[in-house]
Amino acid sequence: MDAVSWEAPDADHPARRAARASMDAAAGGRKEEWLGLFGPDAVIEDPVGPSLLDPEGKGHRGPDGIERFWDENISRVREFRFRVSDSFANGPACANVVSITTTLDGGATMTIDCVTVYTVDESGLITSFRAHWEPDRAIATLTSP
């Protein structure tokens, strides 16, 4: 089974390409490749607003903030499975309806149902990644091995 299951419209669009590349690099644990997808002033809001991952809700900004987000969050996931069920691309952005299943060390799994919005610049680098999901709903799916 592929780590990224794309069951949505897939007409070529720069933000859609960036979204797919981001999911693929995260699922493959390829940190440098993933970091290279972001522009120098990029921001990640995952989830949007205050949360345990971002108590002030201001996002993870610039190369240092985005690398820290990888180190503190993405690197802790042993396995990702992305299922994209819908995708809307227009202007410089793409919004995807995604179900992300993560397997953590020890085998626990959690599913995050969300809408992710990728915005890119003229060269196709991600300037903004916003993930809209509810942590309480995701935690409710947490299962132990």
Number of helices: 4
What integer value in Å does the Rg equal? 14 Å
Q: Per DSSP, what share of the residues sits in E-state strands of 2 or more residues?
A: 35-45%
The main sheet orders its strands as 1-4-5-6-7-2-3
Mean pLDDT: 96
Give the CA-CA distance, first to last residue. Answer: 20 Å
Helix content: 10-25%
Tell me the total number of β-strands. 7
Biggest beta sheet summary: 7 strands, mixed
Q: Give the overall silhouette.
A: globular
Structural class: alpha/beta
Unreliable residue stretches: none
User: Secondary-structure element sequence?
Assistant: EHHEEHEEEEH
Q: Can you give a write-up of this model?
A:
By secondary structure, this protein is an alpha/beta fold. Helices cover 24% and strands 40% of the residues. It contains four helices and seven strands; from the N terminus they run βααββαββββα. The chain has helices spanning 14-27, 31-35, 62-72, 135-139, and strands at residues 4-6, 38-45, 60-61, 77-90, 93-104, 109-120, 126-132. A seven-stranded mixed β-sheet has the order 1-4-5-6-7-2-3. β4 and β5 form a beta hairpin. The longest helix is centred in the first third of the chain and has 14 residues, at 14-27. The chain is globular and about 45 Å long. The model has no long low-confidence stretch (mean pLDDT 96).
